[in-house]
Specification:
The protein is of the alpha/beta class. It has helices at residues 10-17, 23-34, 44-59, 65-84, 95-108, 112-123, 134-142, and strands at 4-8, 38-43, 88-91, 128-131, 147-149. It has one domain: Rossmann fold (3-Layer(aba) Sandwich).
């Protein structure tokens, strides 16, 4: 049986490092990853998106400076660790994926970041596309991704 490849969108990744609704579900996904049941994947673009979201949360006083520093450090450490363990496939930004994302932008009138995530997930034939954005979830389904919405 082929191992499941789970694509995490940026909003799902944030739930790993900032406690909010859906964080427990994401925690369970990471536990299955560490036990060898799953392989995670996301675009290298997501790293900047996650760092930006953590920064915005700090600037808007939704995350203290201390919690921001801890969350950022945990995210970067865990990303490197999972890559070294072979449990995370970091998808590079390639022209082929970018050009597919441009088609999605015009087809669905979405942001580059969202289109890039869908194109990246399709590129690696992800078994599931985990998302916390309802519109992105609906578009992913229209693009025949096995999208799972976690609120």
């Amino acid at each position: 049986m082929k191992e499941a490849i789970i694509y995490l969108d940026s909003s799902i990744i944030i739930k790993r490092y900032v406690k909010e609704p859906g964080s427990e579900s994401v925690r369970n996904i990471f536990l299955k990853t560490y036990s060898g049941e799953l392989t995670l994947t996301f675009s290298s673009w997501n790293i900047g998106e996650v760092l930006g979201a953590l920064d915005r949360a700090m600037v808007q006083n939704r995350l203290s400076k201390e919690k921001h520093a801890i969350s950022k450090k945990r995210f970067l450490f865990e990303t490197r660790r999972l890559i070294k363990l072979g449990r995370l496939m970091l998808i590079p930004i390639r022209i082929r994926i970018l050009s597919e994302s441009w088609k999605l932008i015009e087809k669905y009138h979405i942001h580059q970041a969202d289109a890039l995530q869908i194109a990246s997930a399709k590129n690696v034939n992800a078994s599931q596309f985990l998302v916390s954005d309802k519109k992105l979830h609906e578009i992913a389904e229209m693009e025949n991704l096995n999208s799972v919405y976690i609120s």
